Amino acid sequence: MKKQVIVSGMRPTGKLHLGHYLGVIQNWVELQDKYDCYFFAADWHALTTKYDKTEDLRQNTLDVVMDWLACGLDPEKCVIYVQSLIPEIAELNIYLGMITPQNWVERDPCLKDMAKILKTKEGQGSQINYGLMGYPVLMSADIMMFNSDYIPVGIDQVAHIEITRDIARRFNNLYGEFFHEAKPLLNNCSLICGLDGNKMGKSFNNDIKISDTAEETSKKVMTAITDRSRLRKDDLGHPDECEVAFKYWKIFGTEEEVQTVRHECEKGLRGCAQCKRCLGDKINEKLAPIREKRKYYEQNPQEVEKILNEGSAKARIKAQEVLKEVRKLVKMY
Ligand code: TRP
Ligand code: SF4
After folding, report:
1. Residue 198 Cα, ligand 1 centroid: separation in angstroms?
2. Separation of 289 CA from ligand 2 center, angstroms?
3. Which residues have CB under 6 Å of ligand 1?
4. Which one, of 183, 198, 114, 115, lies nearest residue 153 by Cα?
5. 117 neighbors 43 (Cβ within 8 angstroms)
6. Chain centre to alpha carbon of residue 330
7. Which pTM value belongs to this model?
8. Whether the Cβ atoms of residue 57 and residue 46 lie closer than 8 Å to each other
9. 152: domain CATH number?
10. How far is the CA of 147 from the centre of ligand 1 (A)?
């Protein structure tokens, strides 16, 4: 039986952090065994807000893909490509744009959030451009290009998948039943918080990068928030109020280790500094094989480029099949 199709992408914003790894990439790695998977760097989507700062785009694309490969995405099992290397997506975007009512894109909650952010800027960069308005249409083209069934995304992207479903339905009504109505598969985006207890994010300066060295990681872990009521190391601790460090233990430690940490903390037998030193070692131990793999790709970027070129070529073959059918249905010349 033919496998169902999954598509997902990320805007290439640079090196990824543990939130991406645990919440998104780990999930992708599991999916690649069960589905026909297409994973891509959404460099056109990056342009919607960063069109005036493109000098890092290429390196950022390589960086996210190196992180994916290091975490276990396997080009033998899934197709890994760059959005802008598939011009068929741009053509599909045109057809979908024609059938998308203006108020569907204006309703997009992400656009409203972005409008608020942009308003705080000055001059040229403060306006919403046509491309940004079209964000959900382009995303629909990404998804429909491979006639996908499921889209693994975070909760913040579900509104976009809804628009995609609406556009697919509208296309099918206008031109004939062809596209599947893709369903979201929710990622666990909040699996790990930042070192300060807020959402982990690159711009909040509270993240641990997949590509950080063991030393950098240990140093960062020492800054993690603990039980704020604890002043001396023999004060009795409250692991459940230890805002970050104990939560990390629960993610990276074995059940037994977590029990030991809890016990020693509650009895005042373990100081927070010592606890976080151990935690840093634990995290480093888990990440060591991933980092080793990443280092390999950093030293062999031509291999990453080869993977992207071959993946993009593969993706184009499927995209061309779909586009041929679409042109026929729309009755283009
Ligand atoms: N908008 C997504 C994000 O910011 C990235 C993306 C672009 C995407 N096209 C997609 C995700 C298609 C899934 C499917 O996270
Ligand atoms: Fe948190 Fe460990 Fe300190 Fe307890 S000892 S409060 S678990 S960092």
Report:
1. 23
2. 27
3. 7-11, 42, 45, 139, 142-143, 151, 153, 157
4. 183
5. no
6. 33
7. 0.95
8. yes
9. 3.40.50.620
10. 15
Give the C-alpha distances (Å, rounded to integers) separating 57 from 84, 93, 174, 288, 307. 12, 22, 37, 27, 18
Atom of ligand 2 nearest to the CA of 249: 7
Quote the domain boundaries for residue 308.
5-192+301-330
Cα(141)–Cα(76) distance, rounded to whole angstroms? Answer: 25
pLDDT in tens, 68-101: 999 999 999 999 999 999 999 999 999 999 999 9
Whether residues 171 and 260 fall in one domain: no
- How many domains is the chain built from? 2
Give the residue with greater pLDDT, 156 vs 141. Answer: 141
Is residue 237 within 8 Å of residue 265, measured between CB atoms? yes
Which one-letter amino acid corresponds to residue 156? D
Asked if the structure places residue 92 within a domain, the reply is yes
Phi, psi torsion values for 40, nearest 5 degrees: -140, 155
Sign, CA torsion 102/105/109/110:
negative
Q: Tell me: do 282 and 308 sit in the same domain.
A: no
